[in-house]
Specification:
It catalyses: a myo-inositol phosphate + H2O = myo-inositol + phosphate. This is inositol-phosphate phosphatase. By secondary structure, the chain is an alpha+beta fold. The chain has two domains: about 150 residues, Fructose-1,6-Bisphosphatase, subunit A, domain 1 (Fructose-1,6-Bisphosphatase, Chain A, domain 1, 2-Layer Sandwich), CATH 3.30.540; about 120 residues, D-Maltodextrin-Binding Protein, domain 2, CATH 3.40.190.80. The protein is built from nine helices and twelve strands.
Length: about 300
C-alpha cells in the first residue's frame, strides 16, 4: 500500500482539495460569464496563440491552487508541475521527491473561450511518476470527480455524492460509443474512427470531461492520436483523468497497452493513446485498434 508523505492524512487532504477546487470553480465560472460578453473577451485572452491559448482564468486558477497547497502544506516534501509554470521554459522539470502534483488549471481552454461547458480543472498527485490521487473539476456541471487512491466518486458543491463509476460494460469495439475531441481531431483520427465504425460518436472538449463521460457510463472509449512532428497532449492533460479512470476500473495506455510515462523532458504524451471502460478487456481493444491501423496503413507504428 502506498503511504502519503509523513504528516498527511488522506481524509484531511481530500477535504482541503475540495475547498481548493470549489474556489477554483468560482473563478472559472466568473471568467466564463465575462467571456459571454464579446466586449470583454480580448481582456481575458493573454496570448495570441490560437492553437494554445492562455486566459486570465488559466493564470488565476493556477495561482490559487499552487498558493493554497503551498500555504497549507509548507513543510511537505513534494513539488508542483503546472502547465502555466512551464510554458516558455526550456529547462527540464526536475524533482527529487517521489511525490509531485500535476496541475492543469483549465483543460479545454478553446472550449472555455467558445462558451461551451466542456472544460475542467485537473489536479493529480503522482507517486513515483504515476498518478495516485486525482481531481477533475467540471464547474458548469457542478461536478467534482475525486480519486483517493482507493475509491472514485463525484460530488456537487454541497458535498453530496451525485455520481459513482458505471463501468465494466463488455462490448466489442464497434459496439462502443466513442468520445472524441472537438478542437483536436485530425484526418488520420477521422479515418480511423470511420474504419472502426463505432456504434456512436460523441464530440466533446477537455480530456477530463471525456474521461468523466466514460466513468459515468455515457461513453466507452476515447482515442487520442497525435501526428508525428506536431504538438501532443502533455502530462497535465492526462494525470488526473488517468487517476479517475484507473481508480474506477477502466484503463488508459498507449497502443501497446503500456501505462503512460510521466515527466519526460518534453512532458508530451504522443502517439496513440487509448482510454477505455474496462481494465480486463483493454488490452484486446488496443490490439484490435492496432490491427486496423496496420491493415489500412493509417499511422506510422514503430512495431
Amino acid at each position: 500500500m502506498i503511504k502519503l508523505p509523513s504528516g498527511i492524512d488522506i481524509n484531511n487532504l481530500i477535504d482541503d482539495l475540495r475547498r481548493f477546487s470549489w474556489e477554483a470553480a468560482e473563478t472559472l465560472l466568473f471568467y466564463s460569464k465575462i467571456l459571454r460578453d464579446s466586449d470583454y473577451k480580448s481582456n481575458i485572452l493573454k496570448n495570441g496563440n490560437i492553437e494554445d491559448p492562455v486566459t486570465s482564468a488559466d493564470l488565476k486558477v493556477n495561482e490559487i491552487i499552487i498558493q493554497r497547497i503551498n500555504e497549507k502544506y509548507k513543510d511537505i516534501d513534494w513539488d508542483i508541475l503546472s502547465e502555466e509554470n512551464v510554458k516558455g521554459v526550456t529547462q527540464n522539470f526536475t524533482s527529487n521527491s517521489d511525490w509531485v502534483w500535476v496541475l492543469d488549471p483549465l483543460d479545454g481552454t478553446k472550449d472555455f473561450i467558445q462558451g461551451t461547458s466542456n472544460y475542467a480543472m485537473h489536479l493529480a498527485l503522482n507517486y513515483k511518476k504515476k498518478p495516485f490521487l486525482g481531481i477533475v473539476l467540471i464547474p458548469e456541471k457542478d461536478e467534482l470527480w475525486i480519486s483517493n487512491g482507493e475509491n472514485v466518486w463525484c460530488e456537487n458543491r454541497c458535498g453530496s455524492i451525485i455520481g459513482k463509476p458505471a463501468l465494466y460494460k463488455i462490448k466489442s469495439l464497434n459496439e462502443m460509443t466513442l468520445v472524441t475531441s472537438k478542437n483536436h481531431r485530425n484526418e488520420i483520427l477521422k479515418n480511423l474512427i470511420k474504419k472502426i465504425n463505432f456504434n456512436e460518436v460523441i464530440i466533446m472538449g477537455s480530456i477530463g470531461c471525456k474521461i468523466a463521460s466514460i466513468v459515468r457510463g455515457e461513453s466507452d472509449i476515447y482515442i487520442c492520436l497525435s501526428l508525428p512532428g506536431k504538438s501532443s497532449p502533455k502530462d497535465w492533460d492526462f494525470a488526473a483523468p488517468a487517476a479517475i479512470l484507473k481508480g474506477a476500473g477502466g484503463a488508459i495506455t498507449n497502443l501497446d497497452n503500456q501505462e503512460l510515462l510521466y515527466f519526460k523532458p518534453s512532458f508530451e504524451q504522443g502517439g496513440v493513446i487509448v482510454a477505455s471502460n474496462n481494465y480486463s478487456t483493454h488490452h484486446k481493444i488496443c490490439f484490435e485498434i492496432k490491427q486496423i491501423i496496420k491493415k489500412y496503413n493509417l499511422y506510422p507504428l514503430t512495431a
